[in-house]
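Hey, I'm writing a tutorial for new members on how sequence and structure tokens pair up, and I'd like a real worked example in the thread rather than a made-up one. If someone can provide the structure for the chain below, I'll link this post from the tutorial.
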Amino acid sequence: MPRINLLPWREAERKRKRQEFGVGAVGALALAFLVYFGVNWRMQSAIEAQQERNNYLKQQISELDKQIAEILDLEEQKKRLQARITVIEQLELSRPEIVHVFDQLVRTTPDGIYLTSVKQTGRRIELKGVAQSSTRVASYMRNIDSSEWLRDPALQILETKGATDAGSQFTLTASQENPQLAAAEQNKGGAAGGAP
């Protein structure tokens, strides 16, 4: 039987397997690096895309904030204009008011009374005068109470002098009313209440 030396063949086979293992290991490492760089590139691309979206959203939010500030400013201007319109309407309605008040002062003053002073503070009117008797002052207060433009008379002072012909000095206050303004406010209230 011939003797065959298998050592060089075995050695060549081992060498080939080592080379295949080295090539496989290098290929696996290269593939792992390629996968790592591919995944890393994909993640960086996704992060950059998300950052671009975030920046776009921030820009849109800042523009919306500016628009909201403009809207709030316009609403504030609208409120100021409405307040001015309301004041102008009230002034327009109250413009002839003093004429009516003086007319009512003349109409409500009975015989036997004359006024020495009329003073207005806000919506209150202070009337000072001289009356022939206290009954005339009471009549004057009833006349004021039934007036459209004057309300709530209140007697502050009634002084009767010793001599009967000197008369009684009196001080009374009354509230100034405006029936036109009250009717306008009532109409606004009724229109606002009736609106859906």
